[in-house]
Amino acid sequence: MTDEEAFTAMFRRHYPRVLAFVARRTDQARAHDVVAETFATAWRHFRRLPEEPLPWLYRVARNSLANEERAARRQARLAERIAGRRVEPAPDHATAVVADAGLRAALGRLSPGDREVLLLIGWEGLDSADAARVLGCSAVAFKVRLHRARKRLARLLEAADQEERPEPVKLHAYEMRRAQNSRGRSA
Amino acid sequence: MTEQDVMKRLAEANPVPDGEFDGSSSRAQFLLRSVLARPRPRRRVVRWALVPAGLAAAVAAGVVVVTVDRPAPPPPVPTAATPQTILSAAAEQAVRAAPKGEFVHVTGTVGRVVHRTSAGGYDLIRVDQVQSMHPANGQPGEGWLTIGETGSSVRPLTAADAAAYRRDGSPGPAEVDAGSRTLYPNLTGDHSFAGDVATLPDDPAQAGAAMLAAAPGVPDPTGWLFREGTKLLDTFTEVIGGAGQAKVYRMLGGLAGVRTLDTATDPLGRPATGLAYTGPAARYGTVEWQIFLGPGTGQIMFSQAVVRQPGPANAGLRPGAVQFSTAVTSVTWSDKP
Asked: What number is the ipTM of this complex?
């Protein structure tokens, strides 16, 4: 099998998952650019790719996204200096796109490191060993980080759900009596 | 809430479910071809060898590096040919090219910078899919061309634009005004050449003079001839046959100021020969007009207007930004329209 044929097979197997990984972390418009850069890098280093390249591809995509975010922060600082006022940073995309309001708030309060540990397991469906390869740490270290991040998210989620719960309506004493009487009649 | 419940809730909130994307989509296929067309670096194998003890005094570190080059496919080499040589060869190919069918079906894209005034002002790149069908070899008959009907996309031009784009609610292509949907935005206010190519003289200089006679008073005659000539050679519409194309190629070959680009590929990484002319573009500053000819066909497969010095109409762009581009991605012949 030539390199071209082997790369084509690898591309067809992993393109959907790499694009989904990036689309969960940035807008669709930029996602395609990041995926193109990721596979171009994979082609340059194809002979040195690990046998199971998906964690490696995720890692390259993360680096590409991080480079874009650094560039965006530099641009924002420059814009601040020019405009003479603070430019509000854009919220993290992965957090902003979650529909569950309580979860969105809790994820937003987690550190980026904790969030990524949880998303690699919860959204990408990786096991600890592969997720550790994405982050460049040992599997043992990853398990410790995952355990702590899960605990933090559970705590933040409970707090966020409390905030989301509507306050009980305070009834006037007369209305309370009416409510009790009507319950008594219907029973 | 248990930690298992937390992870279950997180998994259920996944915004992009697995199976959302297809590895055999046309976009994926196009990316795959683009990536495979890119040159790869030559492989260098580094071997470490211990230095014999007798030589250790000469090398304090005790190791030497031996670099061995292994044969690898040679990367594309930038062409050193002159524009005249390239365009003369393209003229020969146009004359010799035999039609492979009655009709030509072409697909590709047109991209352009769109400035938005909302969210403090920012720039987007809008890309529209292009499809066309026309009778082969400039034969009379009806053809059609669509821009954006089979798909469009927008993306921020720079990281700073991305921030403004998000603040603006990340509008999709339907919400972004495309302006006039044409293959070649008229940055210079040019009058289009409307004459008959068949009646142009065979001599390149006289052909250019005859074309200019139809547009007196253009501020940059060479730039106008380069732009109008390349529009006549456009692959999406192919308004003229092989003999007419040969005349236009030779006319372009006679223009002073056209130069060969130092590249062996087009911006999509496909093997190609690039030619360029740099000139004034009224309110768009100084623009480098680039065309990329496919090997063996001489057809224009990519063209772009690269901003060298922004003007009042594109003051937010940096030198090197692409104001607009057209890319031909497939050309197929058929006996059916």
From this structure: 0.76
